[in-house]
Amino acid sequence: MKLTTKGRYAVTAMLDLAIHAKASPVTLQDISGRQGISLSYLEQLFAKLRKNDLVKSIRGPGGGYQLQGAADSVNIAKVIDAVNESTDVTACGGKGNCHDGQQCITHDLWCELSEQIHSFLSGITLQDVIDKQQLKKQNQPSTDKGAESLTHNTFILSQVG
Asked: Based on the structure, what is the number of domains in the chain?
């Protein structure tokens, strides 16, 4: 299974929205600039996200988009489903006609894997992803260039001496 650009971009845009739209609506142009996703592509994605009640649009000056609900109530599977993306890993698209019009011997295996992937993504919310990223940033060691340089130079000197 390969998640296409459509699914990845939808999740990325929704995460950007969840992070930046807490105080005020976010424009698609802002998301486009931060995430490197074309504005026209975002417009197509957000039409589907709005149709599926995941985002709401705010009109007028200072308008843009906000999440329809809280970030902890939107799971990743909902976002992927909203843009008509599939987590199906079967060769036949789940139709059961992949081996000369008949179901292949591995069909049930791939169907179960597809269900597991969807279930996994259903258990992860936008807030879960945001929290994990924030925790990761907090646990990263500081990158003090002076300290790195000093450590590197001390190492070289210890090798010489």
From this structure: 1
Question: Is the separation of the CB atoms in 34 and 112 below 8 Å?
Answer: no
Residue 37, domain member (yes or no): yes
Type and span of the H or E element at 64: strand 64-67
Note the pTM of the prediction, 2 decimals.
Answer: 0.79
- Give the CB-side neighbour count of residue 32, counting CA atoms within 13 A: 13
Sign of the torsion angle spanned by Cα atoms 88, 67, 54, 17: negative
Range of the domain at 132: 5-140
Per-residue pLDDT tens over the stretch 90-118 = 888 878 888 788 888 999 999 999 999 99
Q: Is 38 among the domain residues? A: yes
Alpha carbon separation from 7 to 54, 98, 146, 156, 159 (Å, rounded): 14, 25, 42, 48, 51
pLDDT tens figures, 37-49: 999 999 999 999 9
88 within a domain of the structure (yes/no): yes
CATH code: domain of residue 48: 1.10.10.10
